Amino acid sequence: MPAAQHAARRPRAPRRRGRVVTPASGAEPHGHGTAHPAPTAQRGRPFILRVGLTGGIATGKTTVGRIFSTLGATILDADDIAHRLIEKGSPAYAPVVAAFGEEILRTDGSIDRARLGRIIFADAARRAGLEAILHPLIRAEEARLVDLLADTGQGRIAVSNAALLIETGFYRDYHRVVLVHCSPEAQLERILKRDALSKEEALSRIAAQMDAREKLKVAHYAIDTTPGFAATETRARAVFRHLQHDLQALSEPA
Question: Which residues fall within 8 angstroms of residue 172, CB to CB, at 6 or more apart?
Fold first, then answer.
């Protein structure tokens, strides 16, 4: 199937003018980026800037998250939360097994995530079914962790690393959205190097996600990781400085 047809099947982002910066030169962001939740600081309780960190598979989200972490952000990883939720005895375990059957179980009764992944990336309807089970639970756990962060005063910037933040519409829950992206060639090379997938499987997983050009329409900041780690770190640090300014601006009384 031609690439254009693959792209046409991807979910489209709602149109919103964002403040986008790819800070290779430290340029200021442009646009307005007005769609964010109202600050919720309470007396004696610090305001937490909620940042959605998103991007396609193997674009470098985890790397950018680690850089943000070294700069003082608290990272909430949706994949890590999802993995905990489907462990035996956890809230999503029984619903997922009921939806997908015992074929996804290992001999010890735990869910084989690789087997589950092959099923959902081959069937959009079943993928949507898994998302319907997991996403409300992930959002609830993130909210609990952000509340804990505010109660303990251990951080002011909470970064949620989630691949489907824009596709699901959950980006609206965040004050700022940071998009991580790279060239299609770099993305494919990284998947093949990182995951035990064939080229066809890798391309299928890329095609199942929204095109980065659509995601840019709702992102406040963008980081292109194509050039490698050194450039990515420079760009991530520049974006984090903007986030610190955003934290200060949104924390101030109206």
Answer: 35, 37
pLDDT at 9 over 50: no
**Nearest CA-CA partner of 150 in 38, 252, 254, 49:** 49
**Domains of the chain: total:** 1
Read off the tokens for 6. Answer: 């693959």
Residue 232 domain flag: yes
The pTM assigned to this predicted structure is 0.82
- Decide if 170 is inside a domain: yes
154-195 pLDDT, tens digit each: 889 999 999 999 999 999 999 999 999 999 999 999 999 999
Can you give the length of the chain in residues? 254
Structural domain boundaries enclosing 74? 3-86+138-251
Query: How sure is the predictor about 254, in pLDDT bands with cuts at 50, 70 and 90?
Result: low
pLDDT (0 to 100) of residue 193? 94
Can you give the CATH number for the domain in which 69 is found?
Answer: 3.40.50.300
Question: Which strands form 157-161's sheet, in the order they lie side by side?
Answer: 74-77, 157-161, 49-55, 176-181, 221-224
